[in-house]
Amino acid sequence: MSYHTLEELNKTAKDILEDLGDRISTLKNKERTAIPSQDMPVQDPFLRATNLEEVAIGYTAEQAIVEANRCLQCAKQTCVDHCPVNIAIPSFINHIAKGDFALACEVIKESSLLPAICGRVCPQEKQCQSNCMVGKALKDVDKSVAIGRLERFVADWERNNGIGKVPSVKPATGKKVAVVGSGPAGLVVAADCRREGHQVTVFEAFHKAGGVLRYGIPEFRLPNEIIDHEIENLKAMGVELKTNFVVGRTRKLTDLIDKDGYDAVFVGTGAGLPVFMGLEGENLVGVFSANEYLTRANLMMAYDKEHTDTPIYPSVNVAVLGGGNVAMDAARMAKRLGAENVYVVYRRTENEMPARNEEILHAKEEGIEFRFLQNPKRIVGNEASRVTGMECLRYELGEPDESGRRKPVEIKGSEFILNVDTVIVAIGNGSNPLISQTTANLSVNRRGNIVVDETQATSINKIFAGGDIVLGAATVILAMGEGRRAAASINKMLSEELAS
What we know:
- By secondary structure, the chain is of the alpha/beta class.
- The chain has 3 domains: 6-160, Fumarate Reductase Iron-sulfur Protein, Chain B, domain 2, CATH 1.10.1060.10; 176-272 and 430-499, FAD/NAD(P)-binding domain, CATH 3.50.50.60; 276-427, FAD/NAD(P)-binding domain, CATH 3.50.50.60.
- The protein contains 20 helices and 16 strands.
- It starts with 5 loop residues before the first helix and ends with a helix.
């Protein structure tokens, strides 16, 4: 894929609008599918690999209008059916097509209060965009209407123009709701419960709010200023935020109800327990979980080597194990932190990688080397217990496994040493075990995920849960969907109590 500057892309969009002229509102479906999809302007790959500025620059107004006019406004809204929070997608896109960005944002916020975040990090190509009729007509999901980019555009437009409205709050009900964790699920619950007039307190274990949005996603994908903006909106609504508060240690979960008088509790503590591979040498200096590595870089500002209290481990040659979005984040962060060579080691091929296509492309553009059909056997160290290499095996693909992906099969005698001084394990996370370990009668499954019913209620009365602590490591938008269901259930329960 060739790199184009913002000026070049916007000039093309202006030319398209000029060519269509007054006909744009009366185009036939065939004419709309013929409108070229709009590429996202991005930083130059060589420049961005040296900084933490956001890679994607964002659509211009002209690009957004052109892209929105590709939408067919289908009667059967399959894109909405596959959105976890059921945003009225054709409606907000129609407003963009007409240049009414403010109204477009209002439509989105009827279902989602985090459009600037979701527009950046949600896997639209596997959800709403995978069911776009334009993409189906062109037989290419990458040619679907860029729903996520349009969502991001209007959210950024609203924020940059300072016209966003703080959601209205109903009169006080006297009811108190505790939200444990300030990740995407917790933020949604806090907003939805506060809008109903309940007093809401969010308890966050870290010193800054945002959960996985802040510690798990690098600023080059999701700038902290956007997270800060959403947190400030919650505070403006009257939500109280308590940081450095570890529920399960600072306070037991059930004490929030039994001793502190909360009428309902939502648990959204995420999946922060690193998963390792059990390899020989995983305890060597220079081996990190992706969770720790990204938390140090993102939340603890380890990239600022001259001023931070927690500088990150200096690396020259880095191996990242895994093929998901977290692996891409870790690899690209390692490059920005000064590593000369970064290898993504994955035991299948690129076709089986769960990471977003865009993240893989960006990693390749930035010089990340992909080593497919390879997997570590052991990590090698020196007398000082520091990583000096990784013994790997080569693989070939066999028959599909239970996931539908072809199973990697080891090639006997294919061992070789990869010269690395740092290994980052990015093969997933387990659910945070602290609350389940300190809360009697809370039902969890064999993986440690909290068990809930269809209303997100747990086995303990008045306690609800959602997000990764229930799903395992999932996506931001799925966590938000669970938060929305939980908030609706909490609001219904409290409303019935007030009425009785």
